[in-house]
Amino acid sequence: MQQSYGVQHQSLTSIGVGIHSNDTETYKEIHHPLMVTKNNIALCFSKMGKYEKALEVYYSVEKIQTEIFGVDIPSTNNSLLCDISLCIDTQNQIGSCLYEMGKYDKAIEIYCSVEKVQSEVLGNNHASTLATKNNIGNCLYGMEKYTEALEVYYSVDKAKSTTLPINHPSTLITKNNLGSCLYKMGIYNKALEVYRCLDKMQSKTLGINNPSTMATKNNCGLCLSKLGKYEEALKIYYFLDKTQTECFGVNHPLTVNTKNNIGCNLYLLGKYNEALEVYNSIEKIQSRILEVDDQSAMSVKNNIGCCLYGVGKYNEALEIYHAVDKVQTEFFAKKLFKKNHEVVLIDD
């Protein structure tokens, strides 16, 4: 299901570690500009999606920081907070890269160690601590441990409700994540409650044309559809279709996705002819912008076949299914051939 917010890797306030001696001060003075530059290089790699390269740089920064400040984190000392602000931030960025690479188990180890320090020094309700807790929840979500993720998100939401305004962007992120967990767990009624609450807040603060608001409305529709409330879901999708067409254009992936959801709900209502019209319009759009063997295009063609079958036009449905089968067979044969003929380098 589409989420309106991704992982929010907010900048973390860091904690001082190690003992300051004159030698340490000199070493730090020499290496601080180097660490800043390396950090900037890693940030660029990360923004470019080159997470492995970013990680290499961050690990080199971490090594320098360990040499300067040591490994263990001592008791709180406010005079050290500014000195080592890069330490925890580096750990946070390492966790971010690992998360983006899908290495959730390694990322969560990093975030848990960061969260422990932040809770001790900054407090459980500090914005940086809550941001890290949210990232822990995101890792659990990525690992499909939705019950554990839900517990984390609930604790973050509770803390934020006492420290931040109800419409604060950070609060909205957490509520979205709550809804996503509930949806994944099949608790559609509760997920719908969360998304409706979120939609109300986003509409007021962001506007109905904001992509995040649209994504939340889409999630409301998904929940209604799962609950068998297809007519209610359609009302949302028709509204979204109109808004997205005006904002993004008819060929935009979000608009096409909404049209697909309209077709799906019409089909589930048994309105096969209306669904067929929608799917034919989608196929027309996709034929101009997608390759013939694109899996999304194949899915729409398959849905057209289902609609034709539903209205008793079995010969036409059969033609569609044969066409889809031919393209898919060729596509997967090419994919298998490519996989079986990859060059493998063997070290001595």
TrEMBL record:
Alphabetical UniProt keywords: Repeat, TPR repeat
Pfam families named in the record: TPR_12, TPR_8
SUPFAM superfamilies assigned: TPR-like
Top-rank lineage group of the source organism: Eukaryota
PANTHER family: AAA+ ATPASE DOMAIN-CONTAINING PROTEIN, TETRATRICOPEPTIDE REPEAT PROTEIN (AFU_ORTHOLOGUE AFUA_6G03870)
Listed name of the protein: Kinesin light chain 1
Underlying gene: LOC101235801
